[in-house]
């Protein structure tokens, strides 16, 4: 009986050792499998396009709807890949995606409202800073692997 318990314990330890990876390796693998670099690049491009549209007073509501719906869709796709293996990275990306989504929704409803356009721009600028911070966090953690 004791031999079985010892054998099970040793087998469990051996299996656990096989499955453990460093936090940097785990985040690196997640980043690759979730296509994080291309997602951030696409979100940045979409946000810039939305910012340009919001800062163009002649942009119609229909045009804003199109631009902002694309940003919202891309944001939802990126958000679906969360959580990451790193809690801080998850929090940073979640905040960025929340602000991108809020900016996209505000943009969608902005029409000719200067106040709503300004609010959408603020969300998008804040999200850009959060994406940059998340990218830096990923680089720092994965450099340790």
Give a quick precis of the structure.
This protein is an all-alpha fold.
Tell me the layout of helices and strands.
Blueprint: H1 2-19, H2 23-33, H3 36-54, H4 61-79, H5 87-110, H6 114-143
Helix pairs in contact: 2-6, 3-4, 3-5, 3-6, 4-5, 5-6
Describe the protein's architecture and organization.
- The chain contains six helices and no strands.
- It has 145 residues and is mainly alpha-helical.
- The protein has a single domain, classed as Up-down Bundle (Four Helix Bundle (Hemerythrin (Met), subunit A)).
- The relative contact order is 0.15.
> Structural class, from helix and strand content?
mainly alpha
Q: What percentage of the residues does DSSP assign to strands (E)?
A: under 5%
Radius of gyration: 21 Å
Parts with pLDDT < 50 across at least 5 consecutive residues: 5-17
**Average pLDDT value?**
89
Count structural domains.
1
- Please give the share of residues in helix: over 70%
CATH topology descriptor: Four Helix Bundle (Hemerythrin (Met), subunit A)
Number of alpha- plus pi-helical segments: 6
CATH class: Mainly Alpha
Task: Write down the secondary-structure element order.
Answer: HHHHHH
Q: What is the number of E strands?
A: 0
CATH architecture: Up-down Bundle
The description of the largest β-sheet is:
none
Straight-line N-to-C gap: 41 Å
| Overall form | elongated
Features:
mainly alpha, 6 helices, about 85% helix, elongated
